[in-house]
Amino acid sequence: MNALFKALNDPTRRAILERLRAGPLTAGTIAEQFQFSAPTISHHLDLLRQADLVTSQKQGQFVLYTLNMTVFDELLGWLVQFKS
Questions:
Q1: I need a labelling partner for 49 at 20 to 30 A (CA). Which of 18, 23, 35, 73 fits?
Q2: What is the pTM of this model?
C-alpha cells in the first residue's frame, strides 16, 4: 500500500493516470503530452507499474500502458471502510 500512496502522491503521475482513463497509451504518446524528457516519463510509468496502478504490454516495438482498475477498486473499498 505504501508504493500505491507514493505513486499517487506525485501530480505528474496523477496526470498520467488521468490520461490513461481514456484508454491505453504508449510511453511516447504520454511523453508528448508533458514537458518532460522521455526517461522522466518512463521513470513515472515504472513507479506506477510497481504500485500496480498500470499494466504494460509489449506490442511490437512499443509498450502499451493501461490502468489496472482492480487496484483502484481495492483502494476505494479500503477507503470506504473509514466512512462507516
A1: 35
A2: 0.90
